[in-house]
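Good morning,

Both structures are done.
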Amino acid sequence: MIMTLNRHILNKVLATCAVAAFVLTPVTTQSQETVVDGVAAIVGKNIIKYSEIERAYAQVRMRQGVADAFNNRCAILENLILSNLLVHKGEIDSVEVSDDEVNQYVDYYLKNDLRNYGTRENLREQTGFTYDELKEQYQRMIHNSLLSRRVEYQITEDVSVTPREVTDFFNTLPQDSLPMMPERYDLSEIVIEPQISETERDRVRTQLAELRERVLKGEKFSMLATLYSQDPGSAKKGGELGFFSRGDMVGAFESAAFALKPGEVSPIVETQYGFHIIQLIERRGNTINARHILITPQVSPDDLLAARMRLDSIADQVRAGSITFEDAARKYSTAPNAKQGGTCVNSADGSTHFDKQAVAERFPAVPVQGMEEGQISPASIIKNDNGRQAYCIVRLNHKLASHRANLTDDYDNIYNAALADAKQRRLKQWAAKQMSITYIHLSDDFKDCVFHNLQ
């Protein structure tokens, strides 16, 4: 993952003036130490326990070692006080967090714990908590996390920064602390994805119909999903997707899933990812849990070869000047960015910049690093978001060497860092005011803490 400038700056440079946002830390850890629990602090009517501080401290210690243990614990307590100030404010203002929303996250964490530990007995032995105790803790932690984030959003949603403020922010940063930005590339593509033959579509429909019939005759849907589903994310879990709401899935899939009764199996459903059959597991309020079997039709080798030859011909025309790359993309490409002349957009940050890792993930067979600006790659095979194979040619529009962050090349990153800093300053001002009107009590163990952001 690309380390963006704002994350680097806020972690390294602005640590003394930025208030850290509340982060949910898992209750369970493999190396959890036993501590005698007690009340470390009280914020309004909310209690901060020693165990909360120790869990977070264990994570800090794994990353940074044990140096300055007291100050690390004080910094953790400061962040917990801030999060509890936000929770306290949310409770006073009756900011809504629905039980359904909380339970979705609780189910996710509990299922992950059971996958890690195998059984509820192992979970209790390894963590010291029963399944029900963990569920109760997760419910409280997740509810408070969602509540604090919503209050924080209300406090900072109208914060903005001007270009002048971005420049001023950048000029306050020590030059020797500015991060080195990785080499990055701006790219365009032309993609040809062959059409799926009706014969292949019929083959997939027939296979799914046979699997559906096996389920209806008594075979376990989950077992068949593990064996046959081509959805790598859910197949190993017996096709189970977890709880989701309307709007989370593509339309045809969602409509079919929400129309089912528990245990019922859908007819064959077609989406851009292929063909599915769906079984409803459970309905909970406005959310459902379902499992599915996905089979994705594949293009024939002959059609793939024809796409490759077609792209090689297009590339020759562009190199000869018969057509521009942009016009060729608009005319021939089957990719969603065809109307934009094939300009590639990095889904991670919405920019047109790709570092080496992002290029390797999107175009694993294209030797972008060895290309010159303006050069067009040979036709290379890729797998589209829908899981189907296609061929593409790629043009390297611009290559920016690794460099120390600057306003000219990295303005978007610096803008985001300046905006984050402005929001943190707003939050700090808000917290200082709340401290003066909210009951806060610290245990004697933390009386000597120096808080940098809660003053």
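Second structure follows.
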Amino acid sequence: MANRAGLCNFVSMIIQMNYKGQTTESRVISFLRFPLVLLVLFAYCDFGSFSQSFAAQTITAGIADFISKTIAPVCFNAFFFISGMLFFHEDKFNKDIYFGKLKSRCRSLLVPYIAWNALLLLMLFLTKDITGKPFSFGTSIADIVTTTDNPLWVIRDLILLSILSPVVYLAIKYYSKMHIYVQTGLLMPLFYCIDKSGWWSQWLATPAVFFAIGAYFSINHIDICKVFRRMDVAFLMSVIVAFYYGYANTAYLLMIFLAFCWLGKKTEQGKLPTETMFERASFFIFAYQCIPLGLIVYLVKCGILVFNSEIIALACYIGSPVVIAIIGVFLYSIIDRFLPHLSDILNGDR
């Protein structure tokens, strides 16, 4: 027993050494990269939205509807929340920091956004010339760049929020001066509008709210992993209640809090794995997924891929995100090793 306890302590010490240089909060953020990207893949693998044969498989379609439309969309709100935290992680925010942030966001967001959209357009034009049919995401430059069928809309909105960050900063500073009960009271009608007013989701409002809430924690130097340390059960129950009453975005915010709360404790206990290739390849997987997903959509619409049984439909639904992620890691490792400059462009110097 003593030897076993000593071994456990040794393993825990090694894990903690690997975490050296990372706070609990930053390690949780790093760990969340791949699970969030995997949820993005599931969100876009809802084949029932464009395949009658998939929709006809009622059991699989029900599973897909629950995962892709109810659970998976939390990933998008989490991206904005985490981006808000990271944007304001310095002790202060001024003109020099702002322009420095914009410069870094040009490398990490704008350059890969342009590069991947250009690649998508190239795929569109090439496949249209070969087959006479468009690859997937629309038929014009405007369709490619603006449609939410293209997951790169997240990067587009982050670019806009980065430009508008001084407004976010001033709003948060003013908001933070209010009494905590007033702050909580103002959040309630805000989330009511987000959840019950459909027009909110058509604009930058919902991403801006989650970006601002993430910024709130950084600007006020609140360690989200510690402040919610003992609230995991309360958050879990609140998520269920929020979903039951149709407050999806409220549920997503609570899910984000729950993730930081639970993973923060796991990190402190040394139970989170060290950084993996999947973490490092996350941005590449997020961006490149448009190509394999576009191919799947093309095969379905052409009648080549038909979901004529529950087993086939479920295997395609579960297997597609997994296979796309594995191929993405492989491609990332090859490009990063042999074409480092191209890797820097596609991954934003990550």
